[in-house]
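During the second half of the funding period, the structural biology subgroup turned its attention to how the target accommodates small molecules. The most pressing case was NDP, which had performed well in the primary screen but for which no bound structure existed. We therefore specified the complex as follows and requested a full 3D prediction, including the ligand pose.
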Amino acid sequence: MGDVLLFHSGQDSAHVWVDALKAQMPDLEIRITPDIGDPADIRYALVWRPPADFFGQFPNLALIANLGAGVDGLLARTDLPAGIPITRVSDPDMSRMMASFVLFAVLRHARDIPTFERAQREGRWHYVPPRTADEISVGILGLGQLGATAARELLRQGFKVKGWSRSPKDIEGVECAAGLDALPTFLGGCEILVVMLPLTGETRHLLDAARLACLPKGAKLINVARGPIVDEPALVAALQAGHIAEATLDVFEKEPLPAESPLWKMDNVLITPHLASVAIPKSAAAQIADNIRRVRAGEPVEHRVDPSRGY
Ligand code: NDP
């Protein structure tokens, strides 16, 4: 039996990842789809959105490593072999890149930049008195690897930071709440809301019309997690009504965002094409190599996904 890693991604550069993995594990044999060779050799699969029925062909698979933090696409598949550990990327460089995007988006709203962009397009000198960060409450939905890092970054800037998660958390300086019952009150206290949850059965359309209505009038919404966590037509309606004043959207119900989406033409919406953060080969490769060593040694892997909870 071989001890080979198979790489598959339609989006990432295979050679960059192979070089990064080789730097960590020079002895590791790596194949890139479609050059699979003998399927029985494949022990580790490093993948982003592989084709249907991909996993069934490898009888000796011992590790599935998702080439990103979000595993909603992977867990929705019907060909996942039972009992084989699935891991996701959870590295500090990816968290830092995400935290910098969230900081940019929060500061843009906190400093009224969209208002000035509109005024500039109209050739208007439009003074709005600046507010200090400690007057502005920023709520983060999801206090995992990415959410907690973003929370600390916002704290450093002096914002009032609140966070919401499934299980209770204790993060210094962050007012933490947990569970669905706490959500309406939590939302009511957020001038800027940042969505950083995984997409699961529980979080799909979590932010529907009723929950969006819990936000204070004039709130700003930033979604850097997954589009379907927010009911998009309800969001469009809330933006049109002015209940939500502005949005920064990196993710959408359907990607690429269809040309006919009303979001494209809304001047209170900033659209970015799902790039708030990415897996960074150099740092993520160290984590993947460590897990391969663990599999070889018969030890439990790190950053394991729990399919029953969906993340
Ligand atoms: P983690 O798994 O580390 O954290 C998830 C957080 O969400 C945890 O705090 C968890 O609570 C909370 N959560 C999960 N389900 C619920 C629920 N039903 N109710 C309340 N809280 C819940 O994920 P990451 O921080 O690493 O990543 C978050 C998401 O960001 C990814 O799943 C991915 O979809 C997205 N992403 C987007 C990118 C982009 O470029 N736009 C790039 C990378 C990731 P608890 O702590 O109690 O478990």
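Two results from this model are relevant to the next phase. The pocket of NDP is lined by residues 69-70, 90, 98, 142-147, 165-167, 196-200, 202-203, 224-226, 250-251, 274-277, 311 (CB under 6 Å). The chain has nine helices and twelve strands.
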